[in-house]
């Protein structure tokens, strides 16, 4: 899985770095060493991320890479965690040829209390109940993250893009169907976008969503 965002090469203390704008622990389920493949412009390289604390990391930029880029310039970047692909269940009754359902609409699923928004999004996309989604994901309150949702989509045979796009409040043209990440305090909040409407496990069906609050999205492919 690739993670796309807009990044800037900056000089910090004793080295040049690029800040990763999301919590790697939460999104990628990767704690400790985090080797990544980094690509932006005409530059690609593999490196170990530098921990900044509490799940946030920097990308180190060596002198060879620095000679090819500009300090302070914004680049469209992608990173991919090396060797961190979530294993798929070999016992899944679903596949890309036999998905749990064809997505031709979304029925709202709300969460009875906080901490179940990720599971509610999976339930909406898969056409299941919230309890069924929790059982499939094998996680309860505050345990869902994008990594678990991606693994669950693959278990269910539901196709998705091979990258998460981090807009970080910038305007974006959303695809027909997607899981949206919204930052709410310490945790991320998840909702589903479908055909120009937004299905929020907290607020219900809303016709407009303030994209300045969006952290990023993952496209769910419906065709």
Write the layout of secondary structure elements.
Layout: E1 2-8, E2 10-12, E3 15-19, H1 24-28, E4 35-40, E5 43-48, E6 50-53, E7 56-61, H2 63-66, E8 74-81, H3 117-126, H4 130-137, H5 146-155, E9 160-166, E10 177-184, E11 187-194, E12 197-200, E13 204-206, E14 214-220
Helix pairs in contact: 3-4, 3-5
Strand content: 35-45%
Assign an overall shape: elongated
The CATH architecture assignment of the largest domain turns out to be Alpha-Beta Complex
Please tell me the total number of domains. 2
Note the total helix count.
5
Number of DSSP E strands = 14
Please estimate the helix content.
Answer: 10-25%
**Highest-level CATH class of the largest domain:** Alpha Beta
Question: Which residue ranges are poorly predicted, with pLDDT under 50 across at least 5 consecutive positions?
Answer: none
Largest sheet: 10 strands, mixed
Order of adjacent strands in the largest pleated sheet = 5-4-8-1-9-14-10-11-12-13
Identify the CATH homologous superfamily of the largest domain: Cysteine proteinases
End-to-end Cα distance, whole Å, is: 20 Å
What structural class is derived from the secondary structure elements? alpha+beta
Radius of gyration: 18 Å
Order of helices and strands: EEEHEEEEHEHHHEEEEEE
Mean pLDDT: 90
Query: What is the third-level CATH name, the topology of the largest domain?
Result: Cathepsin B, Chain A
Structure description:
The chain is elongated. It folds into two domains: 2-81, Elongation Factor Tu (Ef-tu), domain 3; 117-220, Cathepsin B, Chain A, CATH 3.90.70.10. Strand 4 (35-40) and strand 5 form a beta hairpin. Helix content is 17%, strand content 37%. It has helices at 24-28, 63-66, 117-126, 130-137, 146-155; strands at residues 2-8, 10-12, 15-19, 35-40, 43-48, 50-53, 56-61, 74-81, 160-166, 177-184, 187-194, 197-200, 204-206, 214-220. The model has no long low-confidence stretch (mean pLDDT 90). It is of the alpha+beta class and 223 residues long. It is built from five helices and 14 strands. The longest helix is centred in the middle third of the chain and has 10 residues, at 117-126.
